[in-house]
Amino acid sequence: MIKFKIDTKEIFHVISIEETNLTANMAEDLMELVAKKQEEENKSLVFNLEGVFSMDDKIAVAFQSLHETCYANHLSMVVCGLSPAVKSKFQEHYLSDTINITPTESEAWDIVQMEEIERELGLDID
After folding, report:
1. pLDDT of residue 70
2. I want to staple 108 with a disulfide (CB 3.0 to 4.6 A). Which of 22, 46, 65, 115 is the partner?
3. Count of Cβ atoms closer than 10 Å to residue 88 Cβ
4. CA-based Rg of the chain, rounded to a whole angstrom?
5. CA 45 from centre of chain
6. What distance in Å separates the CA atoms of residue 50 and residue 100, rounded to the nearest whole number?
7. Who wins on pLDDT, 120 or 100?
């Protein structure tokens, strides 16, 4: 089971992963965690990965799937705090071209809030 902490804000959940290495077998756990949380309260997601120093390909692909699901449901998703190795893994799978990535959690919050305002204004960001 993947270790994490969830901090719920008004319009989004911050999911802080408390693992240093995300392995392939954790991908399903991550998807189940998000599905369960979204079933309780469907909100945008911020993933804080500042403690993660390596990840398998399957986890990187899981983040892409989560991103697609969020935007299909008119929600945002941002990943923040990437270590150099994790950032390389995202780049290797061209995820840095499609997923919102920020250096800090505060910047991730800003993106989620900005996209929420854009949705309220009827702008097509999805």
Report:
1. 94
2. 46
3. 14
4. 14
5. 6
6. 15
7. 100
pLDDT at 125: 61
Q: What is the pTM of this model?
A: 0.93
Predicted pLDDT of residue 126: 55
The answer on pLDDT for 55 being more than 80 is yes
Q: How far apart are CA 51 and CA 3, in angstroms?
A: 11
SS (H, E, C) the chain: CCCEEEEECCCEEEEEECCCEECCCHHHHHHHHHHHHHHHCCCEEEEECCCCCEECHHHHHHHHHHHHHHHHCCCCEEEECCCHHHHHHHHHCCHHHCCEEECCHHHHHHHHHHHHHHHHCCCCCC
- Its domain, for residue 78, covers 4-120
Q: Is residue 105 part of a domain?
A: yes
Does 10 reside within a domain?
A: yes
Q: Any idea which residue has 């969020």 for tokens? A: 70
Mean pLDDT along residues 58-73: 93
Kindly report the CATH number assigned to the domain that includes residue 41.
Answer: 3.30.750.24
How many structural domains does the chain have? 1
